[in-house]
Structure to design on (224 residues):
């Protein structure tokens, strides 16, 4: 689905409940850290928890009975996202489930909803879009794409660009970013260029400073 064609249909929207608890299940620490930080900024009235595998997520929900939503990565070690969706639903039917994917494909979205997901989130969505989708789900609704509506306000960066930005803040080169995120160096360069444009920056330093001022990343930390 092209970004220009994507919009939003919001169903069953009510007031966002304070102190909602969201669990992110993803085996990539960098992406998980970025998601946690982004959601804490966009959904300041929510507690964000994390797990590195489906098994860790199951254990956490067994120990805590106050989790409202689980975000499940499609590609998990040992158990894929669809199987995890079904298992979370069987074990905790009252917990809303959202599938996370690096691929924006209609077939994956359909399978996600058929498996009981209330939303399908992919990395080409901006942080603001993700936050709005999660608010809909937390309010008891279902987030579905619908052409024609304007994109919501929020961070101008996509989830993937946020990952790249965090690495820029740590001084990674384009080649190192590509290796860390398992993408091509050409794709890494394209993400860096898009970040510069979105933040009105001419170089990496300006981009990192602008991102820090916006609260998108913390203080830059040099690698040892």
């Amino acid at each position: 689905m092209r970004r220009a064609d994507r919009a939003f249909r919001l169903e069953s929207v009510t007031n966002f409940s304070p102190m909602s608890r969201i669990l992110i299940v993803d085996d990539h620490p960098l992406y998980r850290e970025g998601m946690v930080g982004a959601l804490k900024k966009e959904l300041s009235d929510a507690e964000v928890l994390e797990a590195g595998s489906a098994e860790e997520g199951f254990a956490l929900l067994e120990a805590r009975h106050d989790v409202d939503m689980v975000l499940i990565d499609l590609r998990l070690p040992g158990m894929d996202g669809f199987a995890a969706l079904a298992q979370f639903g069987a074990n905790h039917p009252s917990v809303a489930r959202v599938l996370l994917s690096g691929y924006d494909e209609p077939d994956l979205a359909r399978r996600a909803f058929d498996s009981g997901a209330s939303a399908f989130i992919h990395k080409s969505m901006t942080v603001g879009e993700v936050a709005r989708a999660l608010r809909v789900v937390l309010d008891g609704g279902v987030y579905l794409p619908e052409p024609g509506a304007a994109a919501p306000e929020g961070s101008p960066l996509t989830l993937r660009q946020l990952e790249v930005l965090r690495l820029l803040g740590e001084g990674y080169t384009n080649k190192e970013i590509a290796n860390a995120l398992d993408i091509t160096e050409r794709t890494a360069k394209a993400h860096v260029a898009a970040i510069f444009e979105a933040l009105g920056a001419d170089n990496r330093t300006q981009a990192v400073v602008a991102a820090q001022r916006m609260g998108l990343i913390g203080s830059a930390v040099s690698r040892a």
Notes: The CA atoms of residues 35 and 86 lie 23 Å apart. Confidence is low (pLDDT under 50) at residues 1-17, 147-152. The longest helix spans residues 185-199.
